[in-house]
């Protein structure tokens, strides 16, 4: 109970912080929307003939969503570094609040921000004609998927921030996302990849999150696809949260 | 009962870097304890161990009767801490910061609000309470940090160099509040400082740290009395003459100790007023050109000088 209450208060602090720095949120939304628009504009018309994707707008929407989520996750690491540099992180460590809440509070605020940006992208995509085969409930599942992926991926940035206390290193967590995105079927179906790339895409957790969202937008409900997406998020989260707690222990050793 | 107890407390970052090298402390309830020493002497590392922010590599410590490693949560609930750098979140307002602090210390919301308003008034930032902290001056941030450390009414408060960099008025107001809390509510203060005046004016007892070890401990009056002499400082430009002055001064009756520090010879002597003329005369006879001479009662810096051969202020630069 205590963990939940403290996590809530720390999450609200993170959200207040985000609300007071709108430029960061605008950057987090602008870059993915820009790439979304440019990619669809550039190859949307040939995508059907090239690799059989008729609704390229819907096909690309999850890429924009995941880019926005990764942006939020990157700024989470930076926010933690700022807390460390200002000594506020020590102030939090000195309170009797559970250590789990210190980590979860930050991740929960990132997760909420990720869902907010996802909602904006989905509304924009729907307005542009992407469609949503799984209906409004599918949108809610995509929001949850984006939120939990944001939470899991933020753990990585948080771990780097806690371990190094370095802003440059924390920013690297965002850069790491790009290889993961390009090693997934972000721009074309996996089936047309070269064998080596297809193998890497198969072991890349981002692939399953992307395909899970894509399935909900283009085709509708698929239990297998949802299980794979949430399973990947869970696996990723287990690794990144373990890293984050280990980094927190290192910081107080 | 001891508010703070340390036995052979050690923190080694590497086998070569011994930040704290085996210190013992026994600080009773209700005391203002000054922890004095130059930069890098191990004061902050000691505070971080006693406040559970850092694990000791050896020895043990108890705060409020709880072990700082095994019962860290119990320690945290009972202490207030204002570290060297005011640990604040610039994007929150002063009031929001205190409210969050209250939640994390499990105060009832209404009580946290009342307590926050009271402390904001006490530290004189009520008018700025709803402004973002980034708009506060350095002094206001320090005072807000102090308020945050007192919000949950702790009985033991650690203040790590609370007045470093503050103007005299802000410094005086923090001293006044520390004294008031100590006298009216019996709060124990563990105060690290590099300002001798601060330790002298506030502390009941002090420990003087140097290179990770406590070199002197006791009440400021007792430590100064231990020197048992007045301090005559003679400035002599020539190094050769300084060495000669040191040798001849040692032979003068009543002189207890002589030290050379930078361009001065420091003479510890009984009844300094009478001895001063004699010392100048003897130095002249020894063909030592005296550039400046002064007489003072011993200070805590003299205690540090006697123990280490250096001034605290020099080491702090």
- Sketch the major β-sheet of chain B: 6 strands, mixed
Helix content of chain B: 25-40%
Mean pLDDT of chain A: 89
Order of helices and strands of chain A: HHHHHHHHHH
Helix count, DSSP H or I runs of 4 or more residues of chain A: 10
Number of strands of chain B: 14
For this entry, give a set of tags:
heterodimer, A: 253 residues, mainly alpha, 10 helices, B: 317 residues, alpha/beta, 6-stranded mixed beta sheet, 4-stranded antiparallel beta sheet, 27% strand
Description:
The complex is a heterodimer of chains A (253) and B (317). Chain A is mainly alpha-helical and 253 residues long. Chain A has ten helices and no strands. Chain A is 84% helix and 0% strand. The two termini of chain A are 27 Å apart. With 317 residues, chain B is of the alpha/beta class. Chain B contains twelve helices and 14 strands. Chain B has helices at residues 43-50, 72-78, 94-104, 109-122, 138-150, 168-185, 196-202, 220-227, 239-250, 272-285, 300-308, 312-316, and strands spanning 2-12, 18-28, 32-36, 58-63, 66-67, 79-82, 156-160, 188-193, 205-210, 213-218, 230-235, 255-261, 264-269, 292-296. In chain B, a hairpin with a 2-residue loop joins strand 4 and strand 5 (66-67). The mean pLDDT of chain B is 88. Chain A binds chain B through residues 2, 5-6, 9-10, 13, 16-17, 20-21, 83, 86-97, 252-253, and chain B through 51-55, 73, 76-77, 79, 81, 83-92, 96, 100-101, 103-106, 132, 145, 148.
List the helices and strands and how they pair.
The complex is a heterodimer of chains A (253) and B (317).
Chain A: H1 2-19, H2 22-51, H3 56-86, H4 88-93, H5 99-128, H6 135-164, H7 167-182, H8 195-202, H9 205-218, H10 223-251
Helix pairs in contact in A: 1-5, 2-3, 2-5, 3-5, 3-6, 3-7, 3-9, 5-6, 6-7, 6-9, 6-10, 9-10
Chain B: E1 2-12, E2 18-28, E3 32-36, H1 43-50, E4 58-63, E5 66-67, H2 72-78, E6 79-82, H3 94-104, H4 109-122, H5 138-150, E7 156-160, H6 168-185, E8 188-193, H7 196-202, E9 205-210, E10 213-218, H8 220-227, E11 230-235, H9 239-250, E12 255-261, E13 264-269, H10 272-285, E14 292-296, H11 300-308, H12 312-316
Parallel strand pairs in B: 3-8, 3-9, 6-7, 7-8
Antiparallel strand pairs in B: 1-2, 1-4, 4-5, 9-10, 11-13, 11-14, 12-13
Helix pairs in contact in B: 3-4, 4-5, 8-11
């Amino acid at each position: 109970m205590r963990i939940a209450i403290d996590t809530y208060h720390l999450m609200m602090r993170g959200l207040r912080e985000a609300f007071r720095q709108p430029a960061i949120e605008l950057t987090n939304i602008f870059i993915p929307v820009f790439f979304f628009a440019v990619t669809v504009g550039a190859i949307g018309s040939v995508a059907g003939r090239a690799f059989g994707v008729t609704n390229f707008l819907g096909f690309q929407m999850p890429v924009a969503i995941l880019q926005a989520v990764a942006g939020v996750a990157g700024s989470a690491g930076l926010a933690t570094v700022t807390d460390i540099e200002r000594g506020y992180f020590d102030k939090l460590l000195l309170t009797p609040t559970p250590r789990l809440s210190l980590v979860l509070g930050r991740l929960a605020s990132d997760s909420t921000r990720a869902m907010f940006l996802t909602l904006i992208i989905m509304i924009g995509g729907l307005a542009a004609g992407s469609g949503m085969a799984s209906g409004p409930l599918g949108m809610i599942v995509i929001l949850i998927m984006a939120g939990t992926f944001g939470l899991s991926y933020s753990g990585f940035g948080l771990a780097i921030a806690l371990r190094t206390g370095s802003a440059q290193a924390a920013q690297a967590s965002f850069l790491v996302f790009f290889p993961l995105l390009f090693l997934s079927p972000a721009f074309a179906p996996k089936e047309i990849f070269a064998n080596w790339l297809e193998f890497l895409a198969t072991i890349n957790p981002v692939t399953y999150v992307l395909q899970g969202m894509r399935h909900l937008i283009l085709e509708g409900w698929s239990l297998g696809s949802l299980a794979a997406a949430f399973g990947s998020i869970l696996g990723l989260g287990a690794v990144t949260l373990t890293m984050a707690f280990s980094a927190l222990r290192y910081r107080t050793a | 009962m001891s508010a703070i107890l340390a036995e052979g407390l050690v923190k080694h970052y590497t086998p070569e870097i011994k930040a704290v090298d085996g210190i013992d402390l026994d600080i009773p309830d209700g005391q203002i304890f000054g922890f004095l020493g130059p930069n890098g002497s191990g004061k902050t590392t000691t505070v971080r161990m006693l406040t559970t922010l850092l694990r000791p590599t050896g020895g043990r410590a108890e705060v409020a009767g709880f072990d700082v490693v095994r019962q860290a949560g119990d320690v945290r609930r009972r202490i207030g801490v204002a570290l060297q750098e005011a640990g604040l979140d610039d994007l929150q307002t002063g009031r929001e910061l205190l409210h969050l602090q209250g939640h994390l210390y499990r105060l009832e919301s209404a009580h946290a609000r009342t307590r926050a308003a009271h402390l904001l008034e006490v530290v004189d930032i009520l008018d700025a309470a709803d402004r973002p902290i980034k708009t506060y001056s350095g002094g206001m941030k320090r005072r807000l940090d102090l308020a945050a450390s007192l919000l949950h009414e702790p009985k033991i408060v650690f203040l790590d160099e609370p007045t470093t960099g503050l103007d005299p008025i802000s410094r005086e107001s923090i001293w006044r509040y520390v004294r008031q809390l100590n006298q009216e509510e019996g709060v124990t203060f563990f105060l690290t400082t590099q300002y001798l005046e601060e330790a002298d004016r506030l502390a009941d007892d002090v420990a003087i740290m140097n290179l990770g070890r406590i070199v002197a401990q006791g009440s400021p009056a007792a430590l100064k009395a231990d020197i048992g002499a007045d301090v005559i400082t003679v400035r002599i430009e020539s190094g050769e003459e300084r060495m000669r002055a040191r040798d001849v001064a040692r032979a003068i009756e009543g002189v207890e100790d002589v030290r050379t520090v930078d361009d001065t010879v420091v003479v510890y002597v009984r009844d300094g007023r009478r001895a001063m003329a004699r010392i100048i005369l003897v130095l002249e006879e020894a063909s030592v050109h005296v550039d400046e001479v002064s007489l003072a009662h011993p200070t805590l810096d003299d205690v540090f000088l006697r123990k280490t051969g250096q001034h605290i202020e020099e080491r702090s630069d």
